[in-house]
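Record pair follows.
FIRST:
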Amino acid sequence: MNKKETIEQIKKCIFDAKKVGLGVKVLLQYGLPGETEKDWEDTLKFLKETKPEHYTLSQFVPLPGSEWSQEMKEVNGWFYKDSDEKRNRLISEIESIL
């Protein structure tokens, strides 16, 4: 999503917050245009390393007519098929880590 923070910067913030006793919640979003199974595997690795106390998982849904709306129809079908099944699998994978 063109974020300016790096994964390493985010990890440092999480570890620093935990060091001073703050709880950490991560907001996870899946189904972004161009996302692959490898990206999800990287997310799981991130969760294993950082061990946040809480998380929220949401599926990306583009605004109708937006540039991402058409791109997702053409490129990113891996999560659209069996969407409930996909979400349940992702939750199960997260829960096995946290």
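SECOND:
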Amino acid sequence: MVTIEFAKGKIIVSEEEYLKTSQRVHDNFISKQKGFKSWEILKDNGGLYIDLLHWKTLKDAQKAAKLFMEHPIAEDFMKCFDMESLSMQHFEVIKRY
């Protein structure tokens, strides 16, 4: 089954800066992790951003999340967010139509 990592929060930098930072995180870390499939960035009209990362397994997603927090690039990424608004969850896809 596919696992989706759902992270949401409000950014405190410009959208352009956030997207540049996300690209660096993707290219230098996320895309190199076992089980990574894709990453989508969504936003609503109120300034809330959602990152949807697709992984092959829950174990892959959890391991990547742990390693990410230990990686130097994580600090730059986390600086983009209002930390009080940030949350993250993992979901397993149980059915796809």
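COMMENT: The chain has a mean pLDDT of 93.
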